[in-house]
Amino acid sequence: MCLLVLAWKTHPDYPLIFAGNRDELHARPSAAAGFWPHSPRVLAGRDLQAGGTWLGLTTDGRFAVVTNYRAGLNPEKAERSRGELAADFLQTRIPAHVYLREVAKRANKFGAFSLIVGDRGALWYLSNRGESEPQQVTPGIHGLSNHLLDTPWPKVTRSMAALNRLLERQNLNDTALFALLADRGTAADELLPDTGIGTERERQVAPVFVANPVYGTRCSSLILLHADGQARFAERRFAADGGALETRIFHHSVCTR
To answer: Band of the pLDDT at 143, cuts 50, 70, 90?
Structure first.
């Protein structure tokens, strides 16, 4: 993921409302969201190059999402893939805060990342460019791009404001949430972050939806966890020209036993 917003314990019916875009090289092979044959509790997409995932949900309510942390044009090559962090959490039953404490001990083996993991009870956050200890995610609306949680980049604040409007209007249908993620508006140069990639590239990746034939938004994903235990996961995939390819929708009951 390279842009995500979530509402955590702010809605009486939905403990978690999540919307996010995965930005990646269009040439990097990946599989669409689905239940993994070798780990059938896991519903997630799959990075076919390194084997991990950027986002997933399990049938017992475990949730994980990972983003990279932008640090110049030529970041150091890491020993391990960030997608492994999300995939491993989804395939274990280790409590989120315990898992992140273990990740913190080996965080330097991974490229720069921000990771959110948890379940319907609690969400926890860790970055290997932020605090060294896991932080519990507080109730409210949060946003994350290629930096630390709630860093006020223009597309983060724009998306958080859009999600807040949808909550106020009780408008949480797929059409409205996918429209939030389809926003191609940009920001003035003076508002863009300086992450070492140059102004032109900052402009290219400034929108919520990045339309670029080489590196851009590959898929948009929605997750709604209902208080009654029902889960909804929707994924819309895109071609290199920004056109939609397909939308996949999954429903299942979350079993916490």
So the answer is: very high
Q: Radius of gyration over alpha carbons of the chain, in Å?
A: 17
E strands, the chain, in order: 3-8, 16-25, 30-36, 39-47, 55-58, 63-68, 113-118, 123-127, 135-136, 140-144, 215-225, 230-238, 244-253
pTM of the model: 0.96
Classify residue 228 by its DSSP letter.
Answer: T
Ordered domains of the chain (ranges, CATH): 3-253 (3.60.60.10)
| Pairwise CA distance, residues 162 & 146, whole Å | 19
Q: Is the pLDDT of residue 50 over 60?
A: yes
34: its two tokens: 């689905």
Q: Which of helix, strand or coil describes residue 180?
A: helix
Among 176, 174, 178, smallest CA distance to 165 is for 176
Other Cβ atoms less than 10 A from the Cβ of 164: the count is 15
